[in-house]
Design goal:
Layout: E1 4-7, H1 12-22, H2 26-33, H3 40-47, H4 63-76, E2 79-83, H5 88-103, E3 107-111, H6 124-133, E4 137-141, H7 148-156, E5 160-164, E6 170-171, E7 182-184, E8 190-192, E9 202-203, E10 209-211, H8 227-240, H9 248-251, H10 255-264, H11 271-286, H12 290-299, H13 308-313, H14 315-325, H15 329-336, H16 340-372, E11 381-386, H17 393-404, E12 408-414, E13 417-423, H18 430-435, E14 443-446, E15 450-456, H19 460-474, E16 483-486, E17 488-489, H20 497-504, E18 518-531, E19 535-542, E20 545-551, E21 566-578, E22 581-593
Parallel strand pairs: 1-16, 2-3, 2-4, 4-5, 5-10, 11-12, 17-18, 20-22
Antiparallel strand pairs: 6-9, 7-8, 12-13, 13-15, 14-15, 18-19, 18-21, 19-20, 21-22
Helix pairs in contact: 1-2, 5-8, 5-10, 5-15, 8-10, 10-11, 12-16, 14-16, 15-16, 16-17
């Protein structure tokens, strides 16, 4: 698939100024500027994330009231019930909250909803479980902001409620006779029955305290937090209160759980999230937590350097697998385990469950590809079938969006109801589009790039037709072509050990802080060949400078190299360690004949 190349250039004088004032190279200055980092002070803060950079948790609305309620519970010997969620963010958030409160000497129990039985979010079954344990206080993590009926039910039983969540709150101006609430999207997304493109006032469930930065105008920098991040901020607030037996020494060991949830929920790795993940990586590398050590071994990471990207593709899918396939209660046991045998047994179970998930996902994905064979999706991919496993729909939608660069909707049908997940491309706000189809939908909600949808199966053709019209109206053919956003233009002789050291300071990489993409022009290709029938290997040269380059899964481009003498390339520089030697190698992301 052809891609547009885009480079956001900066005034050379400004690059020179930042380079001098921050004592960094001009190339690195351009990379940082394209990340919105434009002063020497901002460079220092970004490249040296530390605990002193964490914001005051009491800046979050509701935290003060929540901590006071915890102190009362401790004084009165109350039982506390944590209501989590079945995805990796909700599970790590649950483990953080349970661990912090138990360390503080409280009697704590927890509940994780079952995807197939209970559905997503704070629900009646969770309140019933809290009542059964004799709890007088429920704390939600990663859910609850749209659960009005459940909150009212807890209140009717005399159970107090603290909500901690990061999902979008329901807005007052769009409350209708349909009511409010949340349902399972089939992919851990909250389905709110209403959506608006601009902010007004919010409807908040009845609770002792509600901690959600999206409800607080003074917490803008914290809106990047996931559920685990907010649970960590709650624990941080406890550590700052002298009347709670929980200190900073108890807080720091929770960083690994907060980092896993942050990476899993694909929130931007900037600001508070960058600090959390950066500080946690050494703890994860060292395997300080028994459950994480066991997970690393199951994922084949026990002898490798832990990086955020590796966690996202190895440990996180295993944590998510339990919730996708069934009951995720035991994941919290794993994360809190102090028994080596238990930890390794549970990690092995997650590994087997993830393998099962991969098989089911591949079956659904191949079935979806077969249904698309010979068909022009025309602006949107929409597929539905009875029997598709609801736990893999979001992954399949994501893979189709990545392959075709089109918004994708994948539904499973049961009893005449189509329930599914969707993924979008950067140019199309999927929730804004869904809001124009609300008369055809039972429920929907999510984010600009991902959403859950529920509607009557008989309405699918009308829904597809209208959504296609909206997409064709709002985006151009150019928008449907994927873009390579180049962070800086370089000459090959600028790619040296100093620049590599600078680029390594950008880690951890992830959403909002991607690996740097560099571009170089007018390169000669030398000794091109295909490795293992898939990968393109070569040297790139300009003048006296040359470097090795590898294009993963780009072997099909070998024949095209004879069509021109000089090429432009986009790549990420990396190190290749071979036979005791370490050399810079360019990982190709794009290649085209020079203009």
């Amino acid at each position: 698939m052809h891609r547009r190349w885009f480079l956001n250039r900066t005034n050379p004088e400004f690059i020179s100024y930042l380079s001098r004032s921050a004592s960094i190279s001009p190339v690195f200055s351009q990379v940082l500027i394209n990340r919105g980092i434009k002063t020497a002070a901002e460079v220092q803060d970004f490249l040296s994330p530390g605990i002193t950079g964490l914001s005051d948790p009491f800046d979050l609305q509701g935290v003060k009231e929540a901590v006071e309620r915890i102190k009362l519970a401790r004084k009165q010997g109350e039982k506390i019930f944590i209501h989590g969620d079945y995805d990796a963010d909700g599970l790590t958030a649950t483990a953080i909250m349970v661990s912090a409160l138990r360390t503080a000497g409280l009697d704590v129990h927890h509940f994780i909803p079952h995807r197939m039985i209970n559905g997503y979010g704070f629900n009646i079954a969770g309140v019933e479980a809290a009542k059964k344990t004799g709890a007088s206080l429920i704390i939600t993590v990663d859910c609850g902001i749209g659960s009005f009926e459940t909150a009212a039910y807890a209140q009717s039983l005399g159970i107090d409620l603290i909500i901690t969540d990061h999902h979008e709150p329901t807005q007052k101006e769009i409350v209708t006779s349909k009511g409010q609430g949340a349902e399972d999207s089939g992919d851990g997304q909250e389905l709110v029955t209403h959506y608006a493109s601009h902010i007004t006032d919010f409807m908040i469930p009845h609770a002792v305290a509600v901690i959600n930065p999206k409800c607080s105008p003074d917490s803008a920098r914290l809106t990047v937090l996931c559920g685990a991040g907010i649970a960590f901020k709650f624990a941080q607030a406890m550590a700052m209160d002298n009347d709670i037996a929980f200190s900073e020494d108890d807080l720091l060991p929770l960083l690994d759980l907060a980092a896993l949830g942050t990476v899993a929920d694909v929130v931007p790795l900037i600001g508070e999230n960058r600090i959390i993940v950066s500080m946690a990586m050494q703890h994860i590398q060292d395997g300080d937590r028994l459950g994480i050590r066991a997970l690393k071994q199951a994922a084949g990471l026990d002898k490798r350097q832990s990086k955020a990207g590796a966690l996202a593709f190895t440990m996180v899918p295993r944590i998510n697998a339990a919730g996708r396939m069934g009951d995720a209660q035991d994941v919290v046991r794993l994360l809190l385990s102090e028994s080596e045998q238990e930890a390794y047994d549970l990690a092995a179970w997650l590994d087997r469950t993830n393998s099962e998930r991969q098989k089911i996902e591949e079956i659904v994905y191949q079935d979806a590809l077969f249904r698309l064979k010979g068909v022009d999706p025309a602006a949107v991919i929409m597929l539905a079938k009875e029997g598709w496993h609801p736990g893999v729909l979001g992954i399949v939608a994501s893979k189709l969006t990545e392959s075709f660069n089109l918004p994708a909707f994948i539904f499973t049908i049961e009893n005449g109801i189509a329930k599914g997940s969707s993924r979008s491309i950067p140019a199309f706000d999927i929730c804004a589009g869904l809001s124009e189809c609300r008369d055809l939908l039972i429920a929907f909600g999510g984010h600009k790039q991902a959403a859950g949808v529920k509607l009557r199966a008989e309405d699918l053709p009308a829904f597809e037709k209208r959504l296609r019209q909206i997409i064709q109206r709002d985006i151009s053919q150019e928008d449907l072509m994927p873009t390579l956003a180049i962070h800086a233009a370089v000459q090959l002789n600028q790619l040296d050990s100093q620049l590599m050291r600078e680029l390594e300071l950008l880690e951890p990489f992830g959403y909002g802080n991607p690996e740097p993409l560099l571009g170089a022009k007018e390169l000669e290709i030398m000794y091109p060949k295909v490795l293992k029938e898939r990968h393109l290997k070569m040297k790139l040269r300009r003048g006296a400078s040359y470097l090795d380059a590898i294009g993963w899964d780009m072997g099909h481009l070998l024949e095209d190299l004879s069509q021109a003498a000089i090429f432009d390339a986009v790549f990420t520089p990396s190190y290749n360690d071979w036979n005791g030697n370490r050399n810079i190698q360019l990982v190709l992301k794009g290649l085209r004949p020079s203009a």
